[in-house]
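Intended use. Records like the one below are meant for learning the mapping from a protein sequence to its folded structure. Do not use them to infer anything beyond what is encoded.
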Amino acid sequence: MTFTILGRCARTGQLGGAITTSDIAVGARVLSATAELGVAASQHRTDPRLGPLVLERLALGESPEQAVVAVAAGTRHRDWRQLGALDARGRTGAYSGSRLWPIGAQLSGPDCLVLANMLASDAVAPAIRDAFTGDPAQPLADRLLAGLVAGERAGGERGDGLRSAALLIVERERFPLVDLRVDDDPAPLQRLVGLWDVYRPLAPVFVARALTPDDVPAPGGDHRQSSTTT
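Structure written out for the chain above:
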């Protein structure tokens, strides 16, 4: 009921993931990322504890494949889980338990990993990967979202329609560069693409507010006051 793409931008060093599913609040449960280290996904009867555990093992020097295999091996209900990771070097690792709903997928490409379950056909995962890799010069967020949109157009998932979607990207700071979520929406991908279009020019502004607030002009150029404090 879920399809996910994890990706890396070789030009900027950004790492991130995008996901959509027929369940609610997917952005709060599946994706985890640490700047300059890696991004992980834990889905299918989701255990939100597993993604951070994978990242912890990456921080200890393990490869994504080693980290994913180790976390899966130490997980009691591993047969229900689907895990994936991509590191700052573009390496990937994935695990799909024996009770994964078919059609499932774990498909790597240059600087990306597609994870999915309960797909409409075998064509969906390659469509996601190919859309992501089509233009490496594009911003990472655009490539991740293009992957999800292509997956939906290729048939998406079986059963209920999509209901939520999320986009998570880290760059250099300990907080995300982008963390956008759509919940309980009849067209979550279209809504997420629209949110990104609005957020795109604001992402560097919010980073600057955190790091150098004295240097961020308020609307109209006044540094002393602003109509927004976030």
